[in-house]
Amino acid sequence: MKRLLPLFAVAALAWIALRTLGVAAQPAAVVAEDPGGTFFGRKPEPQKTRRYFVAAEPETWDYVPAGKDEVCGLALPAAVAANRENLKLRYVQYTDATFTTKVAGTPSLGILGPVLRGVVGEFLAVTFLNRTNQPLSMHPHGVKYDKDSEGAFYQPAPGKGAAVAPGARFTYVWQLDENSGPLPGEPSSKGWLYHSHVGSDGEANLGLVGLIIVTDPRRARPDGTPADVDREFATLFMIFDESGQGTTVQDAAAAASSGDAVNNLLIATAQNVAKDVAPPPKISFEKNAELVEQGQRLAINGRVFGNLSGLEMNEGERVRWYLLALGSEQDFHTPHWHGVRVVENGVRRTDVVELLPASMKVADLVADNPGSWLLHCHVDEHMAGGMFARFVIHSHEVVGVDRSPARAFLGMAAVASPKP
Ligand SMILES: [Cu+2]
Question: What distance in angstroms lies between residue 235's CA and the mean position of ligand 1's atoms?
């Protein structure tokens, strides 16, 4: 990430230059022009393309909507209780290019953006509208793209979708080719991250993260869902930073506390960036460390202390979990399910899965043990800091939760099937 600091400076300077020239200083309204929509110079075949409409928008995010820990009975840390809500930027799905009607979100996804899904052999065409005041993008993992649809800003010659200006839109076209899908020995579908990638890790920290699901057509239902699965969940294990310090300031404060040459170089770089994008650090290393600790939100899908709702399934269902992690050196996570066992990536039976930043794994379970169970990160500090949730397996004897594909599979409520 240190190496990205100069890139962030370049991105920030480019943005400032564009603003100064008035080129990109559009109001955050819908503008008509869209320089995207092609894949290596050609429009993808409409009958093989799933269309999505995703806006990035500011939203006040509540890490603890219940206001308390209803699962483990832990007291909320004072800093969390006093500061439950923060302004985030989120990917929000709309029904069409007018960006007027939102697609209802899935509660269990929490802060994650809409699930974008398809089958190997298809294209995803995702029209992105930036309704924030900073340049953003959608950078996908796992799919095939040309330079314009990479959605990442760096030199030389960033693509047209590398940094979408406030108020502007860009249609990314991603091919789900053979290499996007699972190998024969892997589970029938894969989960891939997407996230904003203009400047720094700060964009994921703002909440700009989502999931792409790609299914093997040989193991898919006609609607594209994996045929050997009855229900899906996605969980992102990530520590959000609400210290207000920002990576740049934190780096500079850390560097200021030691005097070696490497760190002097680092602080010079950080201050260089900071003068363009943030005020230079004015607090001590100790104060910085204190603020950073108080600002930590040890979250599953942006919820802490058992506040992630919607992890419900019915007895006997075959349930697939897409496990994700993002973040920094502290973001090594070990999700552990009570009450059930899982198969990790189709090869290993376990009840704990190891994740590192940007890990993307699949865990399959059969819901054979009705009850209300704990899902938590097994790293002690993370568990104590609130990285846990409850999941429920409804017994055969009760009605349970909706089994329809629109409810049981992620991103299916509004999935735009290939249209002629
Ligand atoms: Cu953890």
Answer: 12
Instruction: Write phi, then psi, for 15 (nearest 5 degrees).
Output: -65, -45
The model's pLDDT over 60-104, given as tens digits with 9 standing for 90+, comes to 999 999 999 989 999 999 999 999 999 999 999 999 999 999 999
Beta-bridge partner residues of 213: 117, 191
* Rounded CA separation 38/265 (Å): 42
Distance between Cα 352 and ligand 1 center (Å): 11
Report the predicted TM-score, pTM, of the whole model to 2 decimal places: 0.85
Q: How much distance in Å is there from the Cα of 383 to the middle of ligand 1?
A: 7
Please give the distance, rounded to the nearest whole angstrom, from the Cα atom of residue 239 to the centre of ligand 1. Answer: 8
User: Do 10 and 276 contact (CB within 8 A), yes or no?
Assistant: no
Instruction: Give the model confidence (pLDDT) of 164-181 as tens digits.
Output: 999 999 999 999 999 999
How many Cβ atoms sit within 10 Å of the Cβ of residue 402?
Answer: 12
Distance 338 CA to ligand 1 centre (A): 16
Q: Tell me, in angstroms, the distance from the centre of ligand 1 to residue 300's CA.
A: 9
In the chain, the amino acid numbered 346 is G
**In terms of Cα–Cα distance, which of 154, 167, 161 is closest to 55?**
167
At 377, is the pLDDT very low, low, confident or very high (cuts 50, 70, 90)?
very high
| Residue 383 contacts residue 336 (beta carbons within 8 Å) | no
Task: Report residue 143 CA to chain centroid gap.
Answer: 16
d(CA 230, CA 330): 34
Q: Is the peptide bond before 279 cis (omega within 30 degrees of 0)?
A: no
| CA distances from residue 161 to 34, 92, 129, 137 in whole angstroms, order as listed | 10, 18, 11, 7
How remote is the CA of residue 325 from the centroid of ligand 1, in Å?
9
Q: Which two tokens stand for residue 50?
A: 């799933």
In this structure, what DSSP letter does residue 260 have? -
CA distance 362 to 344: 6
Rounded to the nearest angstrom, the distance between the alpha carbon of 216 and the centre of ligand 1 is 30
C-alpha to C-alpha distances, 133 to 27, 161, 231, nearest whole angstrom: 9, 16, 37
The domain spans of the chain are: 246-294
Query: What SS3 class is residue 310?
Result: coil
